Amino acid sequence: MSLDIVLFLQIVTDVLISMSCLVLSVSMFDSINITVMLIMCFMFALQLGMAGALETLCGQTFGAEEYGKLGNYTCCAILTLTVVCFPISLVWIFTDKILIFFSQDPGMSHVAREYCIYLIPALFGYALLQALIRYFQTQGMIFPMVFSSVSALFLHIPICWILVFKLGLGHIGAALAIGISYWLNVIWLWVYIKYSPSCQKTKIVFSTHALHNLPEFCKYAIPSGLMFW
What is the distance between the alpha carbons of residues 22 and 46, in angstroms, rounded to a whole number? Predict the structure, then answer.
């Protein structure tokens, strides 16, 4: 299986997981639909763009066989994308006030705010996932990405059904299901990094030495993120 197919599979998985709110009733979907646009703007576009900087830097270091720096850059990406999640989360907390300011229905705005708040854990999981995907992509490691993507997608369907319908959580259950799916994806990839011999040379280590590469990463990540945003 080629790397292009794997990346396409990952994108499809992300879209299907993120659009799980489609299983909700039509009345709820009208409210959640507004939120999905915010997600695309603040979550996918900004973090996806910033993670693109890691692809550039890791590609250079891996080609130069500076394997230690690859792990350091990934560490910087994880920390930076995690920090970015906090201001985005703050915006999501006040989603209802923002929507009401733009003359949206107060009831719909309240539902959208609830959905955003319970989606915050997914935001942090997505940030880590994007960094790890670039880490594996640079090294051409296909199997872990295929396994994590497919397994997360297949588990997401029953998890979403149980939370939304069986437990009656509705739009809140859909948001929680997205977070669970992203974090399962992250956990499986992290376990692979920790125990696979293939990742020993490029192991991700959180240290002060790794932070020395933070300014260089931000130099590429900020313009890249703003370009996507």
Answer: 23
Tens-binned pLDDT, residue by residue, of the chain (229 aa): 444 445 555 555 555 555 555 555 444 555 556 555 656 566 667 777 788 788 888 777 877 777 778 888 888 889 888 998 998 888 888 888 888 887 777 887 888 888 889 989 998 998 999 899 888 888 888 888 888 888 888 888 888 889 888 888 888 888 898 899 899 999 999 999 988 888 888 888 777 777 787 888 788 777 777 776 5
SS3 of the chain? CCHHHHHHHHHHHHHHHHCHHHHCCHHHHHHHHHHHHHHHHHHHHHHHHHHHHHHHHHHHHHHCCCHHHHHHHHHHHHHHHHHHHHHHHHHHHCHHHHHHHCCCCHHHHHHHHHHHHHHHHHHHHHHHHHHHHHHHHHHCCCHHHHHHHHHHHHHHHHHHHHHHHHCCCCHHHHHHHHHHHHHHHHHHHHHHHHHCHHHCCCCCCCCHHHHCCHHHHHHHHHHHHHHHC
Q: Say how many C-beta atoms besides its own lie within 10 A of residue 205's C-beta.
A: 11
Angle among Cα 218, 222, 225 to the nearest 5 degrees reads: 135
Separation between Cα atoms, residue 81 and residue 13, nearest integer Å: 20
